[in-house]
Amino acid sequence: MSSDKPARRLRSQEWFDNPHNPGMTALYLERYLNFGLTRAELQSGKPIIGIAQTGSDLSPCNRHHLDLAKRVREGIAAAGGIPFEFPVHPIQETGKRPTAALDRNLAYLGLVETLYGYPLDGVVLTTGCDKTTPACIMAAATVNIPAIVLSGGPMLNGWWKGERTGSGTVVWKSREQLAAGEIGYDEFMDIVASSAPSVGHCNTMGTASTMNALAEALGMSLPGCAAIPAPYRERGQISYETGKRIVDMVWEDLKPSDILTREAIENAIIVNSAIGGSTNAQIHIQAIARHAGVPLEVEAWQEIGHKIPLLVNMQPAGKYLGEEFHRAGGVPAVVWELVKAGKIRKALTVNGRTLAENAEGRESIDRDVIFPYEAPLVADAGFIVLKGNLFDSAIMKTSVISDEFRNRYLSNPNDPEAFEGKAVVFDGPEDYHHRIDDPALAIDEHTLLFMRGTGPVGYPGGAEVVNMQPPAALIKRGIHSLPCIGDGRQSGTSGSPSILNASPEAAVGGGLALLRTGDRVRIDLKKGTADILISDEELTARKAALAKDGGYHFPGNQTPWQEIQRMLVDQFDEGMVLKPAVKYQQVAQT
Ligand code: FES
Ligand code: MG
Asked: What Gene3D superfamilies does UniProt report for this protein, alphabetically (predicted)?
């Protein structure tokens, strides 16, 4: 601590230097001395800074945070703080069954207890893989001690035979080739592996890159932090700067409640449209808003976000990957375009300046990667919000509507933004895999595929399964996608314009539970409606029949946490938060 810092009694001193209770102070102190810290250090009044470590062998996307933490520690020490690194419950998007989303709230709970219960004055949140970012920010919002996000950064670009292979996106593409018999099993595996050439998180604008970009847009990380590829030297450098900065944030008492305002949340929604961000952002930003005590309605995604154009040419909506995004200027260059267009709200960031001030003059240096606001890649690129007798709300990412999709479903001159079709309904991913190629379903290019039983309760955590591949026979005829609608989620790396996150889900009595294969369904994007075309009498009769049958049936629990989460969890439109958790706000002050 430099001597010009104001002397202020810190939270950690309640543990390590409490003159009213020397007995407890001795107990708190002695064990932290046993690995070499001195009493003089712990009683010096220096800020104790947590490093919330999300990396481990089980979490490869975040694993290099184990190395980056060394630079964070050096930054903390250089600024006069004392680092305490500790583990966060692992969340690995692709490795955790039944789904990593189940563990977001578990990691959140664990981190809340750690930040509340231990002698920490501030915390560096190491983020990367999809749910690690919201879990950490949600916990920081609940506890409300000074907190700063350090993204791990994306992997280097993947390449296969001269083409970029992006995380996840390449899986969705090449599994179609595998289904069509164009490539074999080994080549399929090699293509997919080529997309992961280094340490780091997904290199596409999937949920990981999205949530790290939005953490920056929220003001929770240093400017430029989100996009730096994991192995680049700047990643180590910003780790050091992040460590230095959190110490000053403690002295300035700059807390999440100063940063996570309604304006900051709106900035995140706006930036999400401009980057072509993941549909999972709606769930996670809602969760962050709720834990920060900021009211946010799901309609805000359309009202605030829909008219914002797509500026970032990155897979799955575009062409490039994380390295080009960083070189073109990353999040600050996107924010600068939005600032010039008058779209960015005034909101403070971790460095004490506003988001707009941080972006000042940060022109894109590659106009094929970050487009100008006036000449974007896609106009009106944000989500739209739909409702009807199928659900109270669901979202659709319009920036990924392909020409094939538009020509087939949205080209009726009398009805250009609506389509109708016969529903084929699947109850969970296993049912889908079992039956999709069954000729008896008579799936053709006018069929709408439905997935239910995959929301926060039906499939604990909500499955990323709504983007369903058409039957192999249809793919062979050149039909690569059908409209997909469901109460589950979709991978952020998917380029499908699915209708997702339907709330309430079938498992808690949502309208999807009443749908039957063979029903006709109408989707109207202009009106924002999604309805089963049956009479009110028929709908009422089906509701009664479902109630008599004990409601929609879904598989049982396999672990204690699945049962606990299912009892307490809210729907996607409410951020899939634990309902009792949101009443605990700013708990470090209690
Ligand atoms: Fe971890 Fe994509 S699977 S970042
Ligand atoms: Mg995912």
From this structure: IlvD/EDD C-terminal domain-like (3.50.30.80)
Q: Looking at the domain assignment, is residue 279 inside a domain?
A: no
CA distances from 539 to 200, 389, 429, 512 (A): 49, 9, 26, 11
Domain count, the chain: 2
Q: Residue 84: enclosing H or E segment and its boundaries?
A: strand 82-87
- Give the pair of three-digit tokens for residue 34: 């046993």
User: DSSP 3-state assignment of 234?
Assistant: helix
Closest residue by CA, ligand 1 atom 1:
129
Ligand 1, atom 2: closest residue by C-alpha: 202
Eight-class DSSP state of 576: T
Determine the Cα–Cα distance for residues 587 and 585; give it in Å rounded to an integer: 5
3 has a pLDDT exceeding 50: no
Q: Which of 210, 222, 215, 57 is nearest to 130 (CA)?
A: 210
The predicted model scores a pTM of 0.97
Would the CB of 264 count as within 6 Å of ligand 1? no
Q: Is residue 215 part of a domain?
A: no
pLDDT in tens, 167-204: 998 998 898 899 889 999 999 999 999 999 999 999 99
Which ipTM value was assigned to this complex?
0.91
6-38 pLDDT tens trace = 568 999 999 999 999 999 999 999 999 999 999
Mutate which of 94, 132, 490, 491 for ligand 1 pocket (most atoms within 8 A of beta carbon):
94
Task: Work out the angle at residue 467's Cα, subtended by the Cα atoms of residues 463 and 472, and round it to the nearest 5 degrees.
Answer: 120
How many angstroms separate the CA atoms of 365 and 257, rounded? 34
How confident is the model over 41-74, as pLDDT tens digits? Answer: 999 999 999 999 999 999 999 999 999 999 999 9
Per the prediction, the chain carries an average pLDDT of 95
3-state DSSP assignment of residue 315: coil
The single residue listed with the structure tokens 């470090």 is: 588
> Residue 500 belongs to a domain with what CATH number?
3.50.30.80
Tally the residues of the chain: 590
Strands (E), 495-545: 499-503, 520-524, 529-532
Cα angle value 231/232/237 (rounded, 5°): 110
3-state secondary structure of 127: strand
Start-to-end CA distance of the chain, whole Å, equals: 27
Cβ distance 92 to 196 under 8 Å?
A: no
Residue 2 forms part of a structural domain = no
Q: Backbone dihedral region of 575: left (phi > 0), alpha (psi from -120 to 50 degrees) or beta?
A: left
Domain limits at 409? 383-549
Q: Which numbered ligand comes closest to the C-alpha of 166?
A: 1
Q: What are phi and psi of 155, to 5 degrees?
A: -65, 165
Flag whether 354 is in a domain.
no
